[in-house]
Amino acid sequence: KIIAIANQKGGVGKTTTSINLSSCIAQKGKKVLVIDIDPQGNTTSGYGIDKNELDYSVYDLMLGECSVYDCIIKDVIKNVSLIPSNVDLSAVEIELIGKEHKETTLKKEIDYIKDKYDFIIIKC
Fold it and tell me: Strand 32-36 relative to strand 2-5: parallel, antiparallel, unpaired?
């Protein structure tokens, strides 16, 4: 199952929901991938990952500078893996101007790995 947690308004609990939901699902023994698609990267830092020291992030993935396998940080907690984010993501829209099929880039990458996880939670 793929679950997107999204809301235009800030401060409504998207980060808290994504962290708590993924942690609870993982505690039941399910494999979870969390994809942080927020330039603030609070879900990333909420799992104890320094968002300023990333080798690769969802930004690099969207630009095709790495594979989805390169981006995944495995077992940030038991049964939870993460594709992290940071402030670089705020520039991705400009970087993708003129690129064909940009709207499906993330979907194509998720298709490679979706069978490895019981749940994918996308924090928008």
Answer: unpaired
